[in-house]
Amino acid sequence: MSTAVTNIGELVTWEEGRPLRHAAAFVVDAGRVAWVGDAARVPAADEVLDAGGAAVIPGFVDSHTHLVFAGDRATEFEARMAGRRYSAGGIRSTVAATRAAGTDALAALLASRVAELRRQGTTTLETKSGYCLDVAGEERSLRLARDVTGETTFLGAHVVPEGWDPDAYVELVTGEMLAACAPHARWIDVFCETGAFGADQARTVLAAGVAAGLLPRIHANQLGFGPGVQLACELGAAAADHCTFLSDADVAALADTGVVAGLLPGVEFSTRQPYPDARRLLEAGVRVAIATDCNPGSSFTSSMPFCIALAVRELGMTPLEALHAGTQGGAWSLRREDVGHLRVGARADFVVLDAPSHLHLSYRPGVPLVGRVLRAGRPA
Amino acid sequence: MSTAVTNIGELVTWEEGRPLRHAAAFVVDAGRVAWVGDAARVPAADEVLDAGGAAVIPGFVDSHTHLVFAGDRATEFEARMAGRRYSAGGIRSTVAATRAAGTDALAALLASRVAELRRQGTTTLETKSGYCLDVAGEERSLRLARDVTGETTFLGAHVVPEGWDPDAYVELVTGEMLAACAPHARWIDVFCETGAFGADQARTVLAAGVAAGLLPRIHANQLGFGPGVQLACELGAAAADHCTFLSDADVAALADTGVVAGLLPGVEFSTRQPYPDARRLLEAGVRVAIATDCNPGSSFTSSMPFCIALAVRELGMTPLEALHAGTQGGAWSLRREDVGHLRVGARADFVVLDAPSHLHLSYRPGVPLVGRVLRAGRPA
Fold first, then answer.
1. CA distance A202 to A184
2. Which tens digits make up the pLDDT trace of B72-126?
């Protein structure tokens, strides 16, 4: 069954030297992009999808989310916005609610969040454990995550749980917990930050994950300057996410190693922290991804279009660079060659916008502009 | 036909001393709120609307939009975000496109924008002329606007059109143009700003409108300090919109006169200008409205939830204050007692959120959380 997608106002493919086309069409066959070219020369196909003059873009690749959790921290957000200290426990309240949740209830919450992302045009998503911080709970989170995405990340080393000695907890994470979780995960991650895990602990966690067959990625340099980005570069991690506080040496190391800088501007929006500087990274030749970091504490947005609009307003990106970072950049971050673009061979993951151009994603902030969402050529 | 709305997670009514209720229900009869009270004591009704545990809020009142236009200025936005000067004419390009548009085409554009606002929970909207700047065009714009809302504003004095002497244009606006437009408008407006109309010209325009039976409102103090807010207070205008640059005397005058300060944070988001300070206004006792200013040049968002999220992040409002400004505040701005709240007697304009609390409008920025939208008790 092949489908010709026609009457496209603007087609974003990320083809080399030609990121977008006008008067173009493409053909989907067996869930893949089989042909891209001038609309006037589109080959015959079994059916036609008329885009009605709208822009067609690759489906978003959200390379950083935390969707497996229970509970709500809206009142913590409210207190933070009012400048009040909030004593109800922050991440600990999410850990308590997630541990206490029944498996079916947790699966239902996860499924509703995945559906929410899909409706907003996200066709590939990464998601993590990290809200149970015990062996059975982390394993359960990853089993559930694996049912909704291939991009699952073991983040037992999210924070040190209450009552634990940090080194003893690292031993648990790299021992029994890793053994239970590795079969359900593709990635190993650690939150390397003052108050979470230091450089040596983070190196221990990532090295153990790699030894267990996982690929490394890291939360780094979110709240201040620190060793996380350099560690990511030293270990050849796929991505260093946050990258808000970077030294010149950090930027140079990212550029030299090709480690993807994952920028998560929803966090800065929802915490009133300073935004990362995407312009500086792009000009240094760093590969940049934009993701939502969807989580109940610091960024409960699931909207890639919103994060793209923020990237333009606050991070110094052009609308095309921001869209690239939310599609091709996310695919780089996840080391995926089949998604994030619409070149021949890609999985046919695409969004028909309710707009004539990708510019509208930032020109019309907050407006739901995601029309049809297709994944492997089928309605997502 | 009466409807009991039940199983509400949180009900925002703006009742005196009790802005929101839990374990509450309300009854709609003949399109009005007929009863509000404890869920356990809800009177019998012909049918039940089960809110599924979600929050119910008044429909948004968008007190400032410019929806009657043709053309697109996405590339101007792109250039501005890149820090480049854009020479393709700004508002003049919208004027040219709107003048050239066929009436049916212009009506269709307007209808699609109104539908977009409705889907996002806006149940009352103001909209203006101001993109033709000639007698027939301004009149046509207002005839079209009147078909979609009772809140129509004559803004012939938007800018001085190319080739006109400013005083001669004011004479046209207050003479022949006003005579043609007044029958289709409720409001008279003027853009009082350096580069548009000065204080004396603005006073002349508003006074002429008032003499023709229109009610005054004003665009003021957007790009710098200026006389617009004081003029609004002197004339007893309903609202002074923008209010980004205010002296202490301006703030005091707004508080003393009850003129509503309309804040339009989508403009500052899309132009990288400094945001207005809502906290200062609220603490001085000024009545505040939040609106989108939806227009193709400086703020092409139509999303009240997005503007509410910005008001919390950038303007120093609490989530409840921001929601109030986007509902009750908008109603004050339009001098409407029947909308913007859900007290007994209100028109039954309400939104069932896909969320348990109004907090989620800012806690989950960019996420489409507007579920069902009802206007006078019927699907909007």
1. 21
2. 899 999 999 999 877 667 899 999 999 999 999 999 999 999 999 999 999 999 9
Cβ atoms of B290 and B325 closer than 8 Å: yes
Residues of chain B positioned with their CB less than 8 A from the CB of A74: 357, 359-360, 363
All domains of chain B, ordered by start, with CATH?
A: 2-59+341-379 (2.30.40.10), 60-333 (3.20.20.140)
Q: Which residues of chain A have pLDDT under 70?
A: 87-88
pLDDT one-digit tens code per residue, B257-316: 999 999 999 999 999 999 999 999 999 999 999 999 999 999 999 999 999 999 999 999
- For residue A116, which residues of chain B lie inside 8 Å, CB to CB? 367
CA dihedral sign, ordered B19, B20, B26, B31: positive
> Is the reported ipTM for this assembly greater than 0.90?
yes
In chain A, the residue whose alpha carbon lies closest to the alpha carbon of B279 is A82
Q: Give the amino acid at A332.
A: W
Q: How far is CA B352 from CA A110, B53, B57, B115, B143, in A?
A: 22, 10, 7, 17, 32
Q: Rg of the Cα trace of chain B?
A: 20
User: Tokens in use for A312?
Assistant: 């333009």
d(CA B13, CA B19): 6
